[in-house]
Amino acid sequence: MAGAAAEQRRLATVVESWRERAVLVVGDAMLDEWRFAESERLCREAPAPILTLRRRITAAGGAANTAVNIATLGGRALLVAPVGADVAGDELHDCLDRAGVWDRTVSEPHRPTPVKRRMLAGNQILLREDSGDPDDPLDDDGVGRLLTALSCATEELRAVAGGIAPTLVVCDYGLGALPAPVRAWLVAHRHRYATVALDAHDLADWRGLNPTVVTPSFAEATRLLARAAAGFGAPPAPARTGGTGLHLDHPPNDPADGPSELVVGTAPGGVGRAPTGPTGEPTPGEGRVAMTGDGLSVTGAGVTVNATVGEGVDRAGLARARLAELRAHTGADVVAVTLDTEGAIVGGPDGAPRRSHSTPVPASHAVGAGDAYLAAMTLALATGAPLPTAAQLAQLAATITVSDTGTCVCRREDLLDALGGAAGGGTHPTLVGTGELDAIVADHRRTGRSVVFTNGCFDVLHPGHVRYLEQARALGDLLVVAVNSDSSVRRLKGADRPVNPVEDRIALLAALSCVDHVVVFEEDSPADLIEAVRPDVYVKGGDYPPEMVPEAPLVRRLGGQVRTLGYVPDRSTSAIIDRIRAQAATGLATTGDPPDDRLRPAAGMPAAPGPEPTPATPTPTAEHLGRIT
């Protein structure tokens, strides 16, 4: 596990490097209110529980929670957002002060602070009451003061950072804090920010921004793709064009600034099988979203994406297939499609999708987890971290915040503790059994690590194997190698194989720094292990395309991708054994000496001293020759 420990130390170095990174957050700030109650009887007037309030807590929500996460992760967060001059606004200011966020919010006396109030009994959310109407727009005076605050905050952060351009995070949840004039200002002043992250319910409003990273939910991503497929606007322009125009227009019946998530479910008329998981919030006038085999189709009732074509189509598969289009439509360098309990699919300019996983938790535990994800992703990219590193830290930050009910906030100390725990003395052994592999992989995934899986006999370990395994390890954060047992090798390769028993084979593999875990399997196929591990990347050696790998359909059904890596020329187990046999046969023909495994040197090596060989059968058997080392 030396390689894993080094990886965790590298990740911790990235977390340390983003300390005091200047980040400006702008968007819809709101207050989250949690009311915890108990219920022991029903109301006589109606079949409803009688609740006794025991505890009430408040927390920053929306853009304010993103700013809080940036501050608690170690960055320097400054928030610009309209906040009402009301009790909820006062509580929100208190939340920002406690977290160390630089509060540059703009007071709006005639516009209430948005609030999400949740009533719980036994940690079960019974109802949610939302206040703050997106139909209450900022007046001209409010827009002017917000633009002034944005300009001043940008220069304030630049001055604090010694002239370095700050990072910008835009959180547009359709509640009216970012009307068209504010969006236009941000697009026109994009050059003032080094890194720009965008989390928007309606991505079509932000095409001209050319953000560094966008983090849409599955519903938000599908909505954008569906609009393009339905013909709203021109075809997508290449990413990073620098233009200010939006290439997708709103349909006539779509409110300009309203909530924009679509429901993930069966479309009207019962089209297909709906994916599981939480649903979004529908926009008035638009249809529902399900999944379709080719990615998209449009019905008269709205947009339909359905899974009738093959079991392997799921939200992760659809997101992976559409990453390039999402990058083109948004102009973003990086797209991270978040899938709530299923993790995220992330893609960058290299076109290689990356899958991260999450731990399923009750919905009341995951409120605001996306804000933690966005904060960590932004900080990592702002410090120049590679995309795989940023994605891993973002998933880890979101995962470790969902242990309890409430609005999720990730602290820098918690993130470092999670990394230290994975790299410290409590690490898992390299050699593991099939029964414990599930729990070990799940433990790694809780720290945001992606899993690469490969399998083989690895009979006579040679440089081709080592290079192959190093390349496989580079495709993710954790490499699991499954090794055929001796009986399995005999069935696959013949009675004279393996040359080396399984104990020797796994010991050599475990000694390689690129290998994290080694497991032995008895079957001819690793299908059961693949089901258990659910690898993000499944790797096989060979020059054939991934489609010809027998395990490919299974891996893709589980949400992973398949990669094939070419062999090193003239470096194969069979070729090495054939050379040994040929040299042994030549030596026997010349000297007439019988084979003796104890004394036979490897090619080019001097014979070790030892007793004289004992005469044996004149003709060597295949078993003798097969075990020459």
TrEMBL record:
Key words, A-Z: ATP-binding, Carbohydrate metabolism, Kinase, Multifunctional enzyme, Nucleotide-binding, Nucleotidyltransferase, Transferase
Domain (Carbohydrate kinase PfkB) ranges: 23-123, 329-410
Taxonomy, superkingdom: Bacteria
Pathway where it operates: Bacterial outer membrane biogenesis; LPS core biosynthesis
This enzyme's EC code(s): 2.7.7.70
Start and end residues of each stretch annotated as Disordered: 240-259, 587-629
Catalytic activity annotation: D-glycero-beta-D-manno-heptose 1-phosphate + ATP + H(+) = ADP-D-glycero-beta-D-manno-heptose + diphosphate
Cross-referenced Pfam families: CTP_transf_like, PfkB
GO MF terms, alphabetically ordered: nucleotidyltransferase activity
KW Transferase (keyword) present: yes
Domain annotation Cytidyltransferase-like: ranges: 453-548
Extent of Pro residues compositional bias: 608-618
InterPro entries assigned: Archaeal_FAD_synthase (IPR050385), Carboh/pur_kinase_PfkB_CS (IPR002173), Cyt_trans-like (IPR004821), PfkB_dom (IPR011611), RfaE_dom_II (IPR011914), Ribokinase-like (IPR029056), Rossmann-like_a/b/a_fold (IPR014729)
Protein name: D-glycero-beta-D-manno-heptose 1-phosphate adenylyltransferase
Organism of derivation: Micromonospora humida
Name of the encoding gene: rfaE2
